[in-house]
Design brief:
Length: 285
């Protein structure tokens, strides 16, 4: 008996790692005007950023349907247990739809073990939780132990990001246009995180100037993190790989993480962050 790990395409993590660990990814839907895509299926990340540059309006995303999840559940082996780790309930109905799919699945398969977890995060934060659970599954740990560890990681994973531009948060109506224009003129950078309570996005700081913002971003890692030599840190970027690699160099000079994983932000967080955004995720304790 094995444990199958299922997540959604808001996970920003290297595809080869997810494939190697046999993680199933259920795609979110993305709407560019009248054009509808399934993220990661018929719209890859480079094409997404090309379309984002050209689009006057931000794309809209929607959660996978309960049927999308149910289809993936039905594809698993009858002997498998199933763990779903879903995008924060505060950001999407993905988790709720996965729970509905679980109820539908149990009507036909009442003896199957299936757990759905609200990750309270997204992007590489979701990736950190999924990665640990998938490694445990690969190594033959029990379903109950994997679920317990996934819950622990959910409560203790920090996801923090730095916006280089405010253009998309203004376009998306999350920041008043007048205030946003003034902040942009003053070269203000927003430092944000997923809240500990429900995974909604909250502003940690507003910092003037790129160099100061990067210094503060790196400092916050030390403020939140403990015993980092035992931890994996995931770094994601919004179409700015060189900038992300430079950030990784500075992080490694200062902190002894045992592993660094680099990925590109996909459509969900990439739309919010805009070009040049950076994100870090790691287990704090």
């Amino acid at each position: 008996m094995a444990t199958r790990i299922i997540t959604d395409s808001s996970v920003d993590f290297p595809e080869e790692l997810l494939n190697e660990l046999n993680v199933t990814v259920v795609p979110l839907n993305l709407l560019f005007g009248d054009e509808e895509y399934k993220a990661g299926v018929d719209l890859d990340t480079p094409t997404f950023y090309q379309k984002l540059k050209k689009s006057k309006e931000l794309p809209k995303s929607s959660a996978p349907s309960p049927q999308d999840f149910l289809t993936k559940f039905e594809e698993t082996s009858p002997e498998d247990d199933i763990l779903v780790v879903a995008l924060s309930e505060a950001l999407s109905s993905t988790y709720d739809n996965a729970v509905l799919a679980k109820k539908m699945f149990h009507e036909e398969h009442p003896d199957r073990n299936i757990e759905v977890i609200n990750s309270k995060t997204a992007s590489s934060g979701l990736g950190i939780i999924v990665y640990h659970a998938a490694e445990m599954a690969r190594d033959g740990h029990s379903f109950n132990d994997i679920v317990e560890q996934a819950h622990e990681y959910t409560e203790d994973t920090l996801t923090m990001f730095l916006l280089d531009t405010l253009e998309n948060v203004i376009k998306g109506g999350r920041l008043d246009r007048v205030r946003g224009t003034i902040a942009s003129a003053l070269n203000i950078k927003l430092l944000m995180k997923a809240s500990d309570d429900d995974g909604s996005l909250e502003v940690l700081d507003k910092i003037r100037g790129n160099k100061r913002a990067i210094r503060q971003f790196i400092q916050k890692i030390g403020d939140y993190g403990h015993n980092l030599e035992d931890k994996v840190i995931a770094v994601a970027h919004s179409n700015c790989e060189d900038k992300a690699r430079a950030l990784i160099d500075q992080i490694q000079e200062r902190y002894p993480f045992k592993q660094v994983i680099l990925s590109t932000m996909g459509p969900l967080i990439g739309t919010y962050a805009g070009e040049g955004g950076l994100l870090v995720s790691f287990k704090k304790n």
